[in-house]
Amino acid sequence: MNLWHPTSENIWQGRNDLAEADNALRVFQTIKQPVSFSPEAFPHHIALVGFECDEGVKLNQGRPGAKLGPEYLRQSLANLASYQGHDRLVDLGNIRANPEKLSEAQNALSDAVHHCLQHKMKTLIFGGGHETAFAHGMGIYRAFPTQRIGIINFDAHLDLRNSPQPTSGTPFRQLAHYCQQHQRPFNYTCIGASLASNTQALLDEANHLDVTIIWDTQCVEPMPDKLQQQLQDIINQVDIIYMTIDLDVLPIWQMPAVSAPAALGVPLDRLLPFIQLICQSKKLQAVDLVELNPLYDIQGMGGKAAARLAWQLVHWWHE
């Protein structure tokens, strides 16, 4: 596998409570860690793959450091209690980008995702910047050439930028172009977007592509019936769901560890009902968590929030 590296040996560590009871288990004790990239050995499991890349963030004039996110998120997740779903996690290592080689890294991740999905695994990618989404999405479209794919992005930003070169701000515009070229529908929903963080040009592009937007200001109260029905309608329209979570959708007081922290954002307790509905839809095939930047974390707050989010969605993810 091109650009592949195994996960560092010291990442999966935590407290050992087995002297207390044989079911006093934590994620670091139940996750599977093969020595090679071997999706064919783990059908119906969840492939955890890191994307050590922030080349797109740099090109988008953001703060680099997200390439450190995959190992940092693993460390934050390792010591959490293991319950149903967590034993399906298989750590298949990392795709590591070379400097100024964004397309090369994205192609490598797309191939890894395609390989996992072809062997009946689900994919959980820890980014990396949101350039992760173009690579992950490409792998999904390639693996399911005839199915209707719905992209649900939790993000303060629409990421539909018009740029002469791909960046962390262009992935969904790129996927829209891919769909147009291959005569496939582009079904994209962005939840938690901030009007203050998206220009009119981006809204015009979203309208042109018929993007569904649920604004952060619509998420300030517990999910009302109207939003729940809207999300259920989106789910009903597709065969397969790709859920991508840019951690800057969370407010700065929960997630300081991103390139562009959100002043308002959507707190975890508002976000989780949306995610639960998607996880239990039986259509979710692929998830990524992106933009975690440990260089800007404060006392591990961002790492803990990201880990709880990853822990929760894996627990809810319908087998």
UniProtKB/TrEMBL annotation:
Binding site for Mn(2+) 1: H130, D155, H157, D159, D246, D248
GO molecular function: agmatinase activity; formimidoylglutamase activity; manganese ion binding
Cofactor(s) named in the record: Mn(2+)
Group of enzyme by EC: hydrolase
Catalysis: reaction(s): N-formimidoyl-L-glutamate + H2O = formamide + L-glutamate
UniProt xrefs under CDD domains: Formimidoylglutamase
Listed InterPro entries: HutG, Ureohydrolase, Ureohydrolase_dom_sf
PROSITE patterns referenced in this protein's UniProt entry, alphabetically: ARGINASE_2
Chain positions recorded as Mn(2+) 2 binding sites: D155, H157, D246, D248
Pathway info: Amino-acid degradation; L-histidine degradation into L-glutamate; L-glutamate from N-formimidoyl-L-glutamate (hydrolase route): step 1/1
Record has Zinc as a keyword: no
The keyword Hydrolase is assigned to this record: yes
UniProt EC number: 3.5.3.8
Signal peptide location: none
Keywords: Histidine metabolism, Hydrolase, Manganese, Metal-binding
Cofactor descriptive note: Binds 2 manganese ions per subunit.
Its biological purpose: Catalyzes the conversion of N-formimidoyl-L-glutamate to L-glutamate and formamide.
Family affiliation: Belongs to the arginase family.
Name by which UniProt lists this protein: Formimidoylglutamase
